[in-house]
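INFO batch 0412 | record 1 of 1 | parsing
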Amino acid sequence: MTTIGFIGLGIMGGPMAANLVRAGHTVLGYDLGEARVEALVRAGGRAATDVADASAADVVITMLPDSPDVEAVALGEGGVLEHAKPGALYIDMSTVRPETARRLAQAAAVKGVRTLDAPVSGGEPGAIEGRLSIMVGGLREDFDEALPLFDVLGATIVLVGPAGAGQTVKAANQLVVGGTYALVAEALVLLEASGLDGKTGLDVLAGGLAGSRILELKRESMVERRFAPGFRIDLHHKDMGIAIAAARDAEVALPMTGLVAQLVAAARSQGHGALDHSALLKVIENLSGRAPVKE
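INFO prediction complete | emitting tokens
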């Protein structure tokens, strides 16, 4: 089995690393939070002493919050590319700017390290269940080598293009997710303001053409105003910025994306950044002057 250095053991990275352990791989985990490393050790993984220790594995995976974090861990002093073995495979599964993924691929090639950008979608439930959607940028031969690992983590796994392509597809994913949350929130506010039962109305929508994975997984928690983070508003705010920048680079107009980005920014400015992105409902309620039914 493969020896994997896994850097970043948060809401997504922790269960992903644990799934790799359960599949029989040796996983050396590193995170700034000691409790997260301890959780992986309890699951059967091993604790890496630092980034350098984790980077000496056959495969190195990073799952970090943003582009600066990935650049610091991968390119900085004592980072992945300084300590990775020639021929090693470095898979960044974070959601970052496409240009960051391309920069990492170029820097890694100089060191003889192969790279894939492989951001994921599916939230914490998908990470726990090993049913993530994984969109991958890089070379076919590297993708084929990584596929047995991806099969442990995901259900939909597609090589979408060269380095950086995975991040562009993830940007498209996030604008659709954000837009869907905003529309579900508007639907719920409309139903309740009209004197109807929100749960009943969303149940009907989920069974028709309006049905979506978001309605399937989140309608109950949205009706009950439960916003424990599976994916935080703060991170979706970052992702919408990536989508806007990608649109600018591609010289296309994405007006709905711009509107959703503003709603996500409003949620963050209203103090909801640590809540789940379904908390866009709070912004829609504020715009409509509607007091929440429950907190």
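INFO post-check: The longest helix spans residues 165-193.
INFO record closed
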